[in-house]
Design goal:
Pathway: Cofactor biosynthesis; ubiquinone biosynthesis. This is Ubiquinone biosynthesis monooxygenase COQ6, mitochondrial. By secondary structure, the protein is of the alpha+beta class. The strands form four sheets. Strands 7, 8, 14, 15, 16, 17, 18, 19 and 22 form a nine-stranded mixed sheet that branches. Strands 3, 4, 10, 11, 12, 13, 20 and 21 form an eight-stranded mixed sheet that branches. Strands 5-9-6 form a three-stranded antiparallel sheet.
Length: 503
């Protein structure tokens, strides 16, 4: 704790002192020693133009103190060249994300949500989760926490496209911001300048040499070279940026794969459904009109078998997994009435407590290809180093059973943009480690907690043992009638709380 008159060397006051006390927003190429920075010099270079990388760029371009920063997105994905609205009447893509109200609020803040509303999306206000043994189920309703909805299912390509459309509004020429190429090599100031710098021309002036010696050097596969004060690694779970920086990770592979696809119903689906089966959970998520998205976790061998099934057999297998297969439907018991009365005095009865178990809508057809991918957990030991910050899957991956992975990434994007803005407000070096540590401290605890919760669920349901099944189902079923616990779980899943337990 600081005494009166002392300064915090790692805080904003310390950054202000080191920067000479200047307060300004970047308004173009910075002058160093009377020499203006070149067009190849950036404030922020974002490696990876997926959903999270674009969200960082969009947030920085939207905030008053950072909108003048020179930001570049480096990614060879051809989709980054297209910024037209995607048609609502086409077949939904199988790659979707369930975004929470906290993520929706972030998208609204940066001005991208209005573009999503003009493309395909599906809000849902109800969710049912149950156990294959027939011993337990719980239902959630947005009214339990006085909200309009629990979340919204959006195709990944719609999320990316909406961010690009917003960037197009913010920047006169978005093509100058997006580099449609790959990163070839990366050299940080603290590392050897001989790594991947063959052919570098001698500096034209001493001022230029001094300035660039403290920047990150990025060689691109198309032959261009960029220099940046800060590099943001948003290049996925196998992040090349993270590996070059030498940041270690902890994690493991699950003995599971996930199949994703899109199915059709005879009527619209307005609820998110999830059933825990012996091999893993299956989720049925509304995606608009009469379509739903399937996320089905199973062993790699089962995944291979289900991918090779005929469409008719696969649909039959989906309906069996969501309805009549593996075990009976859960039913309420006389004990539930007493449990409900016991806990109703501790925060009131949730609206969904009175809702009975429902059978999910039957799938009538498979309308997309089936995709399968292995599942794993990974967490970076560090999110930052000097002039580097990792976001999204480059920093952490989690089990997809609650659809929280991308929401953690968007949380990273929002937090990093805010920290950069704080640094700019005091004239600090945005690549300074003491500034970037604020981002890591903010996000690491939240991400580790969510990873632990999801990993615990995965392990809890990976054992099929009679007595454990009963205890597991009882805990599930208790959540249906213990309203205070239910409300905390909903708020945590929506991004409104930092802990799923009472706090």
């Amino acid at each position: 704790m600081l005494r009166r008159g002392e300064s915090d060397p790692d805080g904003l006051e310390g950054l202000l002192q080191r920067s000479g006390g200047s307060v300004r927003a970047a308004e173009g190429p910075e002058k160093v020693g009377g020499v203006r920075a070149g067009d190849d010099e950036l404030d922020v270079a974002i490696v990876g133009g997926g959903m999270v990388g674009l969200a960082v760029a969009c947030a920085l371009s939207n905030m008053p103190l950072t909108k003048h920063l020179r930001v570049a997105v480096i990614d060879s994905n051809p989709a980054l060249k297209s910024t037209n609205y995607l048609k609502k009447d086409g077949i939904p893509d199988s790659r979707v994300s369930t975004v929470t109200p906290a993520t929706i609020s972030f998208f609204r803040d940066i001005g991208a949500w209005e573009h999503i509303l003009q493309q395909r999306h599906a809000f849902f206000g109800k969710m049912q989760v149950w156990d294959y043994t027939g011993l337990g189920y719980t239902r959630y309703n947005s009214r339990d926490v006085c909200k309009e909805y629990l979340g919204c299912v959006v195709e990944n390509k719609v999320l990316c496209n909406s961010l690009l459309l917003r960037l197009q509004e913010q920047k006169e020429d978005i093509k100058k911001m997006v580099y449609p190429t790959r990163l070839a090599s990366l050299a940080f100031p603290s590392k050897s300048r001989n790594v991947g710098v063959a052919g570098l021309k001698p500096p034209s002036t001493e001022a230029e040499e001094l300035r660039r010696s403290n920047l990150v050097k990025l060689d691109l596969s198309d032959g261009q070279t960029l220099y940046s004060k800060l590099v943001v690694g948003a290049d996925g779970s196998k992040s090349n940026v993270r590996q070059i920086a030498g940041i270690k990770t902890t994690g493991w592979s699950y003995p599971q794969s996930a199949i994703i696809c899109t199915v059709e119903h005879t009527a619209a689906n307005d609820c998110a459904w999830q059933r825990f089966l012996p091999s893993g959970p299956i989720a049925l998520l509304p995606i608009g009109d009469n379509f739903s998205n399937i996320v089905w976790t199973m062993s790699p061998e089962e995944a291979s078998r289900h991918k090779s099934m005929s469409p008719e057999d696969f649909v039959m297998s989906v309906n069996r997994a969501l309805d009549f297969g593996y075990g009976p439907h859960p039913n309420s018991s006389s004990l539930d009435h007493y449990v409900e009365r016991l806990f109703s005095d501790f925060g009131g009865t949730a609206a969904s407590t009175k809702e009975c178990f429902e059978v999910p809508p039957r799938a009538t057809g498979l309308i997309s290809e089936r995709m399968a991918f292995p599942l794993s957990l990974m967490h970076s030991h560090d999110y930052v180093s000097k002039r580097l910050a990792l976001v999204g899957d480059a920093a952490h991956t989690v089990h997809p059973l609650a659809g929280q992975g991308v929401n953690l990434g968007f949380g990273d994007a929002a937090a990093l943009a805010e920290v950069i803005s704080e640094g700019v407000s005091v004239g600090a070096d945005i690549g300074d480690l003491s500034l970037l540590n604020r981002y890591e401290n903010d996000r690491k605890a939240a991400n580790v907690a969510m990873a632990a919760v999801l990993d615990g669920f995965q392990k809890m349901y990976s054992v099929d043992f009679g007595p454990l099944n009963v205890l597991r189902a009882a805990a599930f079923h208790g959540a249906q009638y213990i309203s205070p616990l239910k409300k905390n779980i909903i708020s945590y899943a929506m991004g409104d709380r930092k802990s799923p337990l009472f706090s």
